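Standup notes
- DV: blocked on the single-chain target, sequence here:
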Amino acid sequence: MSAVSKVLVVGGGIAGLSVAIALRGHGIAVDVAEKYRPDAVLGIGIILQGNALRALNSLGLLEAVRAVGFAYDGFAFFDAQGGNRTFLKGDLTAGPEYPAMMGITRPDYSRILTDAATSAGARIFPETTITDLTQDADGVDVAFADGRRGRYDIVIGADGIHSATRKLVFGDIGSPRYSGQAAWRVNFPREVDELQSYDGGDGDRAGVVPLTDKVMYMYVTDKAEKPIEPEGDLREVLRAKLAGYGGLIGKLRDNLPPANELVWKPFLLVSLPQPWYKGRVIIIGDGAHATSAHLGQGGAMAIEDAVVLGEELGRETDVATAFERVMERRFERANKIQQWSEQLCRWEIERAPDADHTGVVAKAFELVRQPI
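- DV (later): unblocked, structure below
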């Protein structure tokens, strides 16, 4: 018999929908409270490395992702002019019949997760937030912003960097902090068949990520004292920032779309100390360990959290034991990814002459290919 029978998941993003699917696989009733409208998909695209594909396969979602995403073998590194290429091949972590990694658009990914969660029997409530949690030995009473109340065996906070669940349970512990860096992202017609990273020589980097047969996005890291979008014409600001690049990045710089298609987003970090739970409420995904995008592992860590939490809650055990097992399996792994991502971020901000991007990426590859 499962540790729980009725669960509230706060947040209908990657972590929340993934854990809803995992729990429904064990016959556990799941409600998902999602802050935004169903059509409010945030972001451009996401990298799914081998460990993410493996986790998705365990949820029965890999073939759906494979049908709409774009597969590639690894990371290619270049100088600012597109020379001095080195290549770091990804592991076939999901199995020899699957790619090393994939890119997928956020709208496609959200649709796949939402459809799967709904088909599995999870109830999704859009434009729904929580205002209060009251625990006792047997469950959690939840107050919703619309006046409704509900009682659940446990609550899973999967509501992202600015998690309301974390705030209710842990107060200011684990509040977001600014990394000192942001990233530009913008879509282009696809021109490459691998993930590419270009060293700008000034501490910042640019790169491209294939998402579909037709679409890729360009990213550009950006040192900024405050997490505030630059002033002025964003198109001209980005063009000036890319002035020193040649090759593909130089070509994309000269063909930027209108400013309203450019996305500038700061890297906000969350480091919730262990344990990520208190009583019958647990935090997963970005709400517990948001990281910068340097290793492309944020989404993967969220999916792995969901799979592990689903497995542990599906066992014949109690909630406390299940949550303890989640921490044993997840904390060190997620913490290392966070530390290494932040190291890459600091190197870029400080223009560190001894920075070893490929070395850190290789260490991360080795870690995430290990079972969870």
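- Follow-up: The mean pLDDT is 95.
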